[in-house]
Amino acid sequence: MTPPEAPEDGSHQPRKPPAASVCVSEPLIILKKRSDFLKAARARRQGTSSMMVQARKRAPDEGSGIRVGFTCSKKVGNAVARNRAKRRLREAARAVLRVHGHDGWDYVLIGRAEVTANRPHDALLGDLRYALRKIHSDRK
Q: Which residues, other chains included, contact 57 with Cβ-Cβ below 8 Å and sequence gap of 6+?
């Protein structure tokens, strides 16, 4: 019986991990504390047909990077529907926030009932881009 790290070709050399890609950017930081969600709720917001986006600029002592949180209320549906909507919001954030998000900001994406889970992917991305453009151009 060969150890699990042995390659399939029968050689006894350990496998080398795959080389890291040079185009991988650092991952988004996920908001988990309720206080972070509440702070974002008191800041800027922009609604679209498929989601609500709340955003807040953090103080310089709170760190850098783009942080994002996701939430769906029970109005969205049962647990399966809420998880599907959040998965789609995560994918949209992963695709859009690295390009259009600003460093030092927190974003909270809130799913809408029966729309977030069923909206075409390109339209979902467009909605998030639109919301970010409005949030960052609007200087209240």
A: 43, 102, 104, 105
Q: Which among 44, 51, 28, 45 has a CA at the least distance from the CA of 124? A: 51
Q: Is the dihedral of CA 90, 121, 23, 67 positive or negative?
A: negative
- The H or E element containing residue 85 is helix 79-100
Q: How far apart are CA 3 and CA 108, in angstroms?
A: 45
User: Under 8 Å CB-to-CB from 21, ≥6 apart: which residues?
Assistant: none
Residue 115 DSSP code: T
Mean pLDDT of 23-33: 76
Count of other CB atoms within 10 angstroms of residue 102: 13
**Span 42-64, pLDDT tens digits:** 999 999 999 999 999 999 898 88
Q: Which of 71, 47, 67 is nearest to 56 (CA)?
A: 67
Quick: pLDDT tens for 75-121.
Answer: 999 999 999 999 999 999 999 999 999 999 999 999 999 899 999 99
In the chain, the amino acid numbered 64 is S
